[in-house]
Amino acid sequence: MTTPGKLYIVATPIGNLEDITLRALRILKEVSLIAAEDTRRTRILLNHYDIQTPLTSLYEQNEALKSASLLLRLKEGKSVACVTDAGTPAISDPGYLLIRRAIDAGIDVIPIPGVSALITALCAAGLPTDHFVFHGFLPAKTAKRKTVIQALAEDTRTQVFYESPRRLRATLCALKEILGSRHIVVARELTKLHEEFIRGDLHDVLSALDERDIKGEVTLIVRGYQAQPIINIRQAISECYDKFSAEKGLSKRDLVDRIARELDLSRKIVYETVHQGNTEE
User: How many CB atoms lie within 10 A of CB 84?
Assistant: First the structure.
């Protein structure tokens, strides 16, 4: 009886080709086949390290079909490495279906750890890392995106997302509208020449990005909700309301935004508190 091969889940660099482990290089040389999200991208890495292992494609649109042929190879005793364009397979990238089917078939699945944009951004963000949750990409449609953000408004864990550079500003605006003046970090082009961390509250980050043409992969990290005693919140909002009301030219909406930013509270809480206070009067 033929001993099945092993499926290796190999993390690859997210930008800097030096960010690959010695073990990963050895595995990529030893396996019979490398299943890659984009063979052209992976070939750049393999050429850099003079690795001659054959490549085959495994991307989102063909994973269901391709995983069947890869399982046959594995059952025949051939070992396969699964890689994506950058980072760790199955983390907002192809690989999950192949991994699940290999496990169901009794094939050993062996992780070869390495870089991930999620952890790379989080460890340098300066936000709490003891409890965090990763959401992958937010929905592309505005209504669905806002629904997801609203559901997280009172989650105290640090929130981590991947985002397209072309949707970044719309996402930040939605976060500001729903969460208020929450502290965030925009991490882009990680490990590359133009690596950048933009830190601050949503208002300041939006201002910093104003009229900039953002390029490259983006990881977005949002501080979790910080609960405070409701009586202190009401008192603080009331004091800010009295202070800012004296300024000319501020609409009720501007006033709510100003208070939310000043106290690092969600706009919803400030609006409801101000509205309730005016009703009671």
Answer: 26
Q: Torsions phi, psi of 116, nearest 5?
A: -145, 135
What string of pLDDT tens digits covers the 281 residues of the chain?
Answer: 789 999 999 999 999 999 999 999 999 999 999 999 999 999 999 999 999 999 999 999 999 999 999 999 999 999 999 999 999 999 999 999 999 999 999 999 999 999 999 999 999 999 999 999 999 999 999 999 999 999 999 999 999 999 999 999 999 999 999 998 899 999 999 999 999 999 999 989 999 998 888 888 899 999 999 876 655 788 888 888 888 887 777 788 888 888 888 887 778 888 888 877 654 54
Distances (CA, A) of 271 to 143, 146, 197, 251, 252: 21, 18, 31, 13, 9
- Residues ≥6 apart with Cβ < 8 Å to 66: 35, 56, 57, 58, 98
CA dist., res. 110 & res. 9, Å (int): 6
> pTM above the 0.70 mark?
yes
Q: In whole angstroms, how far apart are CA 174 and each of 80, 82, 167, 197, 256?
A: 42, 36, 11, 20, 16
